[in-house]
Amino acid sequence: MIGVYDYTVILTYLSALSAGIGIIVSLNGTGHPYYGTFFLLISGLCDAFDGRVARKKKDRTDLEKKFGIQIDSLSDLIAFGVLPGCIGNAMIRVSPKLPELPRFKTQTRVEFRIAVILFVIILMYILAALIRLAYFNVTEEERQKTEEGCRKYYEGLPVTSASLIFPTVMLFQYIIPMDITPIYFIVMFLMSIAFVAKIRIPKPQFKGILVMIGIGVLEFLVLLFYIFR
User: Fold this and answer.
1) Both ends of the chain: CA-CA distance in Å?
2) pLDDT in tens, 96-120
C-alpha cells in the first residue's frame, strides 16, 4: 500500500478529514457556515501539532520527510483554502443561527451581481492559497538543502492563519447587530492578497504557538456553546 501511515502523519490526516466534513456540512442541503467553522477550528488545532509530532521521529527517511511536506500542504489547501471558501458560499446562500438578521439573496439583478463578486473572491482566495502552498513547498525543499532546522520567517501570510482569522470574524456575528457576510468577504479578499504578497512574517516561537492554540481553543469552546446550546 503506497503512502505513509505512521504516527507522524496522523494529525495531518485528521486535519484533512475534519476539513472534508466541514466542506460537506457547509454545502449539504441548505448548509450552515457555523458548522463549517467548527471543523475549521478542529483542523487548525490538528495542524498546530502535526509538525512537532513529525519531528519527534528522528529516523525518518528522505521519502517520509518529503511525503510529510507534500501531504501537509495538500491538507492545508483543503482545510484552509477550500473550506473557508465553502463557508463563504454557505453564508451567501443561508442564514446561520440568527434568522432575524438580513442576508444576501440572489433574487434581483443587482443582488445577483453582488453574489457573483463574492464568488469571484472565493475563487481568488482558493487560487492564492494554492499558489502560496506550492511556492512554500518549492522554497522549503531548496532551503533544506543548505540549512538545518526550521525556518525563521515565512514569505507571505501562512494559509494556516485562516484557522484563527475566520472563526474570529464569524464570532463577531454574536456580538454586533449586523450581517457580517460583507466583513467575511473583505477579510477573505485581503488574505488572498497577503498569501502571495512578498512580505516576511516571523515564524511564531513556542510561546507564540501556545498563545494561538489558546485562542483557538477559546474560539472552539465559544462556538461549541453557541451551536449546541
Assistant:
1) 44
2) 444 444 444 444 444 777 888 889 9
Q: Mind listing the pLDDT tens digit for each residue in 136-186?
A: 888 877 776 777 667 777 888 999 999 999 999 998 887 777 778 889 999
Query: 164 by DSSP, 3-state: which?
Result: helix
Q: Are 153 and 201 in contact (CB under 8 A)?
A: yes
Q: Are 26 and 36 in contact (CB under 8 A)?
A: yes
Contacts of 169 (CB under 8 A, 6+ apart): 180, 183, 184, 187
Bridge partners of residue 202, in order along the sequence: 153
Contact of 21 with 53, CB cutoff 8 Å? no
Considering the entire predicted model, what is its pTM?
0.87
Strand-pair partners of 155: 200
Residue written as grid cell 466534513: 21
Closest-CA residue to 86 (of 40, 132, 130, 46):
40
Instruction: Give the 3-state secondary structure of residue 101.
Output: coil
Query: Closest Cα to residue 39, out of 87, 90, 97?
Result: 87
